Amino acid sequence: MKFGGSLLKDSDSILKCAEEVYSQAERRPVVVVSALNGVTDLLIENAFRALSAKADPSDLRKFHFDIVKNLNLEVQSIERMLFDVEVLLRGIQQVEELSVRVFDRLISYGERISSVVFAQVLRKMGLPAYSVCSYDIGFITDSRHTEAEPLQDIEKNLRANLHKVSGIPVVTGFIAKDLQGNITTVGRNGSDLTASVLASALDADELQIYTHTEGLMSADPKLVADAVMVSHLTYQEAAELAYFGATVLHPKTLLSVMPKRIPVKLRPLANPKKETLISENTPSQIPILTYRNPVALVEVYTHRLSPILNEMNSISASFNKAQLAPIVLTNTLSTLTAVVEEAPFRKKIDYRVRDSWIEFPIEKEEAIAERFRVFKEEISKQAHTEIVTGCALLCAVSDRLGRNREILKSAFRLLDEAGVRVHIFSTTASGIALMIGVDGADVPSVLSTLHRYFLKHYRPNRR
């Protein structure tokens, strides 16, 4: 059972999550928690302030102590961890620099405090629950701080150590340790990944991921009025949705559970029975629409009429140097088009990793402009580059959608008749996803147009 930070925003919501665990206590659940709502951002913000001697963790203290007071919890262990946070911030202020190792250690306290809080709440309900740091039970990763990957052969140790917990383990999501004993993190929103690795290690009956939304919808209900709930979909469909922007699931969540065919259930906390099942043989009955907005189209042309693929090594090196990660690549003989996120930033303060140090760009717009400038400079000797900003990448996902010629022709015709400028119209090799690049301003109308058509005409078994 995994509970994200958006569900742990105050004492009432924490109690609601704990009640859900209580209702399934006889099933011997393992609980994975994220940091309490907004805490990771507060820790990052204070790290940024510490570099200019302006850190003020009083907001962190107040937030946690208000919850502790409202829930009548023991404060000593939480006080100890908040003191450790302050020590780290003072150290950052003194040396005026921030290594990735110190950064991961700092932001790990969000999950560590959350685990202690949640376990105490469960114990007050009469359940034998214990706070467990994931690295203490063997959740080990490589040493790529801020984006670490779990090591291959850790499940046996995880299983043995979890079975030693004589009650309900409340495990920290997101954080781990490397083989040298340094705290690492597996990327923002990585608690889904932690939960899936533990589910695989235990050969769990199912993985339950709780959400603050109504469930997985066929499109963003804020933009598409007739969006409907999706009751089931396959692992492959869910993986494509996560990759192309759906926020209900971390893109790497399915890597551990899919080989063992462990079902994943997305459960709205407000109504857990209204769940979405992700499993092997349960394709969605309607294409599900998601999108990334804004994105930029980076178009690369060779200086000579030679195959663009001959230049891929230098093109890839240029993307890496500029810290740009293409979402999609398409090519002709002498042209390559890459879709990159135009604003790949956190909610409040962006950071980037360079040579094992954390850097904080001050202006987000300046940061992405600098990345584009670096890319153009790096690639200029091999090719010419044009960058089109203000675009969006839409993705429609459903089993065999991309192999249904009638549906594809009709979708393109509808967009053409609506006067939509289509930059990209392409399917994946598997046929499971249709990718459409449009101007960002056209996202609401394109989503609504395609969704109406799919509801009326799409038949999942037609080829």
Which properties best describe this structure?
8-stranded mixed sheet, single chain, alpha/beta, VC0802-like, 14 helices, Carbamate kinase, 37% helix, 463 residues
What's this entry about, in short?
This protein is an alpha/beta fold.
Overall number of structural domains: 2
Low-pLDDT stretches: none
Q: What coarse outline follows from CA principal-axis ratios?
A: globular
CATH architectural type of the largest domain: 3-Layer(aba) Sandwich
Which strand order do you get reading across the main beta sheet?
A: 3-4-2-1-7-9-10-8
End-to-end distance: 37 Å
Task: Report the total helices.
Answer: 14
Level-1 CATH class name of the largest domain: Alpha Beta
Task: Round the mean pLDDT to the nearest integer and report it.
Answer: 91
Task: List the SSEs and their pairings.
Layout (H helix, E strand, L loop, with lengths): L1 E2 L7 H13 L7 E3 L5 H12 L7 H14 L4 H20 L4 H8 L1 H16 L4 E4 L22 H9 L4 E5 L2 E3 L5 E3 L5 H11 L5 E5 L20 E3 H9 L10 H4 L6 E5 L7 E4 L8 E15 L9 H10 L6 E4 L3 E7 L10 E3 L2 E3 L4 H16 L3 E15 L7 H13 L4 E6 L5 E7 L3 H15 L6
Parallel strand pairs: 1-2, 1-7, 2-4, 3-4, 7-9, 8-10
Antiparallel strand pairs: 5-6, 9-10, 11-13, 11-16, 12-13, 14-15, 16-18, 17-18
Helix pairs in contact: 2-4, 4-6, 7-8, 11-12, 13-14
